[in-house]
Amino acid sequence: MIDIQTLLIYAIPVLFAITVHETAHGWIASLLGDHSARMMGRLTLNPIKHIDPIGTIAVPAFLYFTSGFIFGWAKPVPVNFNALRSPKKDMLWVAIAGPVSNFLMAAGWLAIIFVAINTGSQFLADMAQVGVQINLLLAVLNLLPLPPLDGGRVVSALLPPKLSYQYDQLEPYGLFILLGLLFLGVFQSVVLPITKLIQHWAYSLVGLI
Questions:
Q1: Active site residue 171
Q2: Which residue of the set 22, 34, 90, 150 is catalytic?
Q3: Which pTM value belongs to this model?
Q4: Which pLDDT value is given to residue 62?
């Protein structure tokens, strides 16, 4: 059984990670001409607005209790790419906003580790370490070049129009392809090593190891 303190140590960083990630997409889209997220009340840091009952609750809980592995997703922020001032170019900035927000949050949690060390708060230190890990994992995972992940959007924006259109045809099957790749070990062999490398570099940079 998970006690309340352990639940909070994981739940708070996860909720912040997915909430800010999705809000960042909507915020950049709004700056570039598409106000869909704002009009639908999704340009908010209220995590309830971004929770997907299946992807945020049911799937992660099932995976955690059956395998110890956690994978899930938030409710995607609506983006009408045709409403952007320069749809193909601006799509790249909207897509990259999510992972960038996670890298920034990882840096923020890294700073909180110092606060925890100076105040002697083990609870805060544990939460901050989870915050660093969760945000780096989310950023790296979302940068995989597979639509509808953010990395797939970036690749689509960089490809010539014809190739971009053909590449986007993968999107309806993207989630199934991703789940298949994760099942085949892409998480353990690609995502996790990259995440650990970035985390080790960050900890070394600020003198935590």
A1: no
A2: 22
A3: 0.90
A4: 72
